[in-house]
Amino acid sequence: xPVVNDTFLWSVWRWSALYVVGFCVGIVLxxxxxxxxxxxxxxxxxxxRRKFISAVLARNSLDFDMSTGELSNRLSSHIDRMxxxxxxxxxxxxxxxxxFIVSSTISFILDWQTTLLMAWAGPIYxxxxxxxxxxxxxxxxxxxxxxEEANGISEESILNVKTVASCNGQKQM
Length: 173
Description:
- It is a multi-pass membrane protein.
- It is a single chain.
- By secondary structure, this protein is mainly α.
- The protein has a domain at 70-156.
- The protein is built from six helices and no strands.
- The chain starts with 5 loop residues before the first helix and ends in a 7-residue tail after the last helix.
């Protein structure tokens, strides 16, 4: 018959429950963080897109004679690059650094043995950090489809500025 130490078992259950609760809270907070980073990035990109279109419309219509799709191509490529840099990559970097600092601090405050216990959770955390953006990809794809439709409308408007100017309709515009 095994020797049972009730104090030890309750201590193990308590710490295990704390880690499970912490893990669940971490998953929820990471999802919220990813959502907020994506939302903030989209808001910034909308603001940049509006300012770019305003600047383009304020220019002389002769500047549009370069090529037909150059402006819209430049707009979409630069905005996509900015979105990639600000969105997922920055969010993942902030998330990983803050998690490393907080978990290391908590581990060393409690005791060094806890650090060994948390070491096995690293691969699970990395897997979670990879899966959350993949799972939210559907909403991103849907937002991109709506954005592409809006880009098509704005592209058509920008490309028709030359026609409006040639018909002396810029005062009604």
